[in-house]
Amino acid sequence: MFRAMIKRIYQATLLTLCGALFITANVTAEEQPLADKVEALKEQVVKLNRDLFILEEDLLFPATTQVTVYLSVDTGEFFKLDSVELKLDNERVAGYLYTDRQVSALHRGGIQRLFIGNLKAGKHELTAFFTGFGPDGREYRRGASLAFEKGTDAKVLELQVRDATETYQPEFKVVEWQ
Amino acid sequence: MAIARWRRVARVSQVSARAALMQAVSCVPIFGTHFLSKASLVRVLLVSTCVLGTSFSTAVNGQASEVDLEQIDHLQAELGYRVGLYEYYQGDPLAALTFLEVDKVRVAERSAMVETVNAKDRADAHHDQIANARLLEAGIRLGYGLHRSARALLSQLVASPTLSEQGYAEATLYLAQWLYLHQQPDAALRVLKDIGSSLPEEQAQQAAYLEQLLAVKTGRSDVSTNKDAGPWQPYLLYNQAIGYAQSDDNDKAQQTLEQALTLISQGRAVEDDSWLDLLAWSFWFPPTPLPLSEQELQSLQDRVHLTRARLYRQQEDYPSAVDAYRQVSIEGMAAPEAMFSYGWTAFNAGDQPLSLKAWSALAQREDLTAEMLQVHLAIAWSYEQWGMQSQALNSYQQAAQSYQQILAELQSQIDSLAPEALMSQLLPDTDETWLSDQGIIKVASLPRLDPLMISQQMQARLIDARDLRLLQRNLLNWQRNMEQFDDMLEVRQLSREAQLAEIQAAPPQAEFDTLKAARDQIAAQVAQAEQDPEALATDEELAILKRLKRAEQTLSQLKEHPKYAQYAERLRRVRGTLDWQLRDDLVARQWQQTKSLKELDNLLRESEQRLTRLQRIVDTPSEQLALQQRVTQAQQDLTQQLLAVNSTYVALRQEIFNLVLGDLKRQHALVKEHLAQSQLAITRLYEHYLKIKQQQAFPQAAPAPSPATEADKANPEEIGEEGAS
């Protein structure tokens, strides 16, 4: 399923690597350590970023109250996403206008972390409004909602925009993961 | 639905992936020749959507979908790397890798929490997705310059027993490419031998291309050279032709180069299905059409023509060589070299006007390297060779003048060079992220430095410099965040202390006890009402009851009264009415009381929870402290990391500066040499004229040697096509 995406990653990465080859071919022995140092620094920063990211979540969004909303989009033949508005318990918590690049990333299998926040334990309702262009270029505004119960574990929800091939119409869903 | 969706994603992505991957490999030189253009250095291809319209409709569909357990597992297994993928496609590999790393931690946490065997089985069922995620991670790591960890990941994947057959083949291919790009062709060939036959067509073509390329590079004859390399066949043919030429098989080399040219022209004419595929691809990805863009096709074609011309010249077939040079694009990067060699070939063929025409046209160009600047000398030398002394002298003087001017410019450029200013010029500090605008690094064009700027060693350093800048920005952002977190924790601590003080001042247990007493009272009333409805009487009814009891007592003392029976009857009726009313309202009152009881129970529960929370606040002071310690530690780590990044950036900046300075000095020395040669030639020609004058003045003196003979002695070794090196 993700073979194509992986191949796509290699397309860009190996182009860079191609450049790296010439480093090994052309640089002197004295210059090499600096390239190594940059690589080591990048590795360290990735690890540090990971730790900081987790620390940030622990600080701001502890699991007991955390709710995260992701957005995924199908191939988008019947719908071109323009914006999303998110409401939790009738209160607007997020809004997003998409660039072509972001829409493209979603079409190519990426998932966007649209919202992360805190909610009390109990019953809640998530409502999402999608704006864009549907079949035949008509402007579309659709909504989807989900009533859910927030417990003591982190809550993960996904907004899905899919092409319904049976009806030739876009389909909007909210899926509860955990 | 999901399958249909991914099929589509895969279809769109496959073509571009194949294209760029092969483009990357094809750019690698095998015999010191490469044709990597600026535009192709780092590139990310994007899908562009094109749905437009104007009408409006509104509808709200309030549906929640239900997914089964298996699908949830599936989604969870994908989540981490699909979020990473989104970040990667936004041009931020650092964020993508961060998400992938965070996902690993989260997955480990989840696994630790999984208790049932069934759940573990479900988790194990997704090892293929985990392998995909690792393959993806290896790719992103490569792109981000983390070669060692990428290699380690690919090796792990190849050794993994749980990897699917196709996954294994793909990991093997990428590992082979890694080895090839890191100059380990023999190891790459060994890895490729084990690749199997489960690769999809595009990747099978990549593997075929790589294998045959490696066979040429290593001189192995046991590898089949007839496998289809798909759209990359022209590159393969070119490299094979170079191999034949090196082994002195010029005929076969020419034949192979002709094949490459045919394929290139076919590619342009779209005569082949595979190229049609690529054309479709260009429709979907307009920013970077075709794996071999027109620019690269042209570059490859120019290289093919240049190589053909060289081979013809080796065989002294000057007309064919001239014809081959003529095919090189005047706009391309190979044009100066082609024009210079074209001039020499014409000169060798005895066509001086043609050589002068080519060199004069070349001399007019403003993009000449220091090597190509010797064309001024070549023009003058050509005149001299053909006995046109005055034109030769004039040309030498013009050349000397040009060289002096260029030397002055170079000196001024060297004098004004400074590391910081140079970096600001080369990489203007903008808000662009990684790989923005199709991943091309925008490098400012500096006079006379274009060849250096497009060299691999410089490009690699510029990528590193750009990455270090982004790391600096990332670390500074975190530093700001940590300061805010620090403040936030301080506020939380103060708030907690205030809460504790409040709790101590007014213990919440007292409020709870009052509520509980009220609740118990109502409960007792409800229980009593079953036996005695008066327990739920209203205040008014209670007042009447009281009066009734008093009247009954009074009446019991008046039994002798003549109206006793009348009063007793009235009293009995009132009592009966009241009892009837109490019993009639009992159900409603019981319901009302039960409702109140439930409300009180709810309040009590909330109070209890609040009490528990408060107790937790009181009992767990260490959580805040632990977070505080983590923030403090993070601040220290950030400071250290930032220092390391800054110092490395300064070192890299100095290295780039040294490269630029070295190149400018090298050019300065070379042009100085050209100037010396032209000045020497001018002196020589003046001496010649002086001798002629002397001869005319004193006819008995010995005849002077011919200038052409002297020039032959002085110049051919110094001024020539080979002198360019």
UniProtKB/TrEMBL annotation, chain A:
The stretch of residues making up the signal peptide is 1-29
Name the record gives this protein = AraC family transcriptional regulator
Q: Keywords, A to Z?
A: Signal
TrEMBL record, chain B:
Region Disordered, residue ranges: 697-725
UniProt cross-references to InterPro entries, sorted A to Z: TPR-like_helical_dom_sf (IPR011990)
Q: Can you say what this protein is called?
A: Tetratricopeptide repeat protein
Q: Which organism is it from?
A: Corallincola platygyrae
